[in-house]
TrEMBL record:
HAMAP family: PanB. InterPro entries: Pantoate_hydroxy_MeTrfase (IPR003700), Pyrv/PenolPyrv_kinase-like_dom (IPR015813), Pyrv_kinase-like_dom_sf (IPR040442). SUPFAM superfamilies: Phosphoenolpyruvate/pyruvate domain. It comes from Leersia perrieri. GO terms for cellular component: mitochondrion. Pfam families: Pantoate_transf. This is 3-methyl-2-oxobutanoate hydroxymethyltransferase.
Length: 396
């Protein structure tokens, strides 16, 4: 606790109203800013036998036929949540409220991120590593990123969605950058795009994309797409000159029209300085607690990868909030074992039945067609259901 207190000390001495304004003090008990996604209360139905004029009420509609799916629990219709917009994010930043951000790469992760109530969801080019097994982010293409965006969009109904421009999709020219951004917006269905770097060509690209009517998030510090030029995944801003360059890069991206800037793998004082210098939010990843918000990779924070080979690429700055990989491994091993011991599926997971009269008719039809082995299998199945094990004969 004392270590974290020391980290927070610079916040007091900065005394910069643009960094942490007095209005940033928030009452934990306040509910007015919380997003309400609770489904409407259930009301019991009251059957009325007659209408007001004494006439009998119409007969109730027959029940719907049983569906094939629906094994995951009751389907509840919830009210559509309010979408997060740029105005929402600017409001949070103005009030000094932290901005939450996480990555997602497919429909299930989009659903989870949305249900958790995150402000921003990034469909990152990190998909190249966590979804496709590459050693870095460079191999993923624009078409693949767009497909990931589509999938996440189907699951994320309220979160502000950011799509990454992958390596090779915006470096050649400003028109190429604009064209790529337009594709990610139109085909991917995102709310904004993100691009890496602060070289003059990247600043020009960011400005042109903003002028095309597309919101842009910048990304400086460690920029994974520049791993070749950087000599690996290395922190940035560790010398005075490079620290000043980080702050200047952030200001340049702000001047280009970016609505936020990601600061990756820079020392906490450098991130604090950039945050204080800017009038737009900073989103930290491995940049300490003094940013306007934080982002982590979905798979990293959930502990999706438990294999020793993945330990060497686990970021030092990431806190692991779960051991989902262990849970997945245990579940898969249990399922495999139950299949091999023929304990799955049991009666509770064999829901589809033939009526007794239909079983007899089915048997007769099989015999008539000369399918005697099939008829024996049906008889053995009936014996098993009635308590006489015949599995070996059924599958012989």
């Amino acid at each position: 606790m004392s270590q974290f207190s020391r980290l927070l000390t610079p916040r007091v001495h900065l005394n910069n109203s643009g960094f942490f304004p007095p209005s940033s003090i928030i009452s934990p008990s306040s509910l007015s800013r919380q997003l309400r996604c609770t489904p409407p209360p259930h009301h019991s139905r009251v059957s009325r036998r007659a209408t007001s004029n004494g006439a009998p009420a119409p007969s109730p509609a027959p029940p719907e036929p049983a569906a094939v799916y629906g094994g995951g629990g009751a389907n509840q219709q919830a009210a559509a949540p309010r979408r997060v917009t740029l105005a929402t994010l600017r409001g949070k930043h103005r009030r000094g409220e932290p901005i939450s951000m996480v990555t997602a790469y497919d429909y299930p992760s989009g659903v989870h991120v949305d249900a958790a109530g995150f402000d921003i969801c990034l469909v990152g080019d990190s998909a190249a590593m966590v979804s496709h097994g590459h050693d870095n982010t460079l191999p993923i293409s624009l078409d693949v990123i767009i497909e990931h965006c589509r999938s996440v969009k189907r699951g994320a109904a309220r979160t502000f969605l950011v799509g990454d421009l992958p390596f090779g999709s915006y470096e050649s020219s400003t028109p190429q950058a604009v064209d790529s951004a337009v594709r990610v917006m139109k085909e991917g269905g995102v709310d904004s795009i993100k691009l890496e770097g602060s070289a003059p060509s990247r600043i020009s690209a960011a400005k042109a994309i903003v002028e095309a009517g597309i919101a842009v998030m910048g990304h400086i510090g460690l920029t994974p797409q520049s791993v070749s030029a950087l000599g690996g995944f290395r922190p940035q801003g560790k010398t005075v000159d490079s620290a000043i360059k980080v702050v200047e890069a952030a200001l340049a991206l702000q001047d280009a029209g970016c609505f936020a800037v990601v600061l990756e793998c820079v020392p906490a004082p450098v991130a604090a300085a950039a945050t204080a210098a800017l009038q737009i939010p900073t989103i930290g990843i491995g940049a300490g607690p003094f940013c306007s918000g934080q982002v982590l990779v979905y798979h990293d924070l959930l502990g999706m990868f438990q294999h020793p080979l993945h330990a060497k690429v686990a970021p030092k700055f990431c806190k692991q909030y779960g051991n989902i990989g262990d849970a997945i491994n245990r579940a898969l091993s249990q399922y495999k074992q139950e299949v091999e011991t023929q304990s799955f599926p049991g009666p509770s997971h064999t829901p589809y039945k033939l009526a007794a009269t239909d079983v007899d008719a089915f048997l007769n039809a099989l015999v008539d067609k000369g399918l005697n082995a099939a008829a024996d299998a049906v008889e053995n199945t009936e014996k098993e259901i009635n308590g006489t094990p015949q599995l070996n004969k059924i599958y012989a």
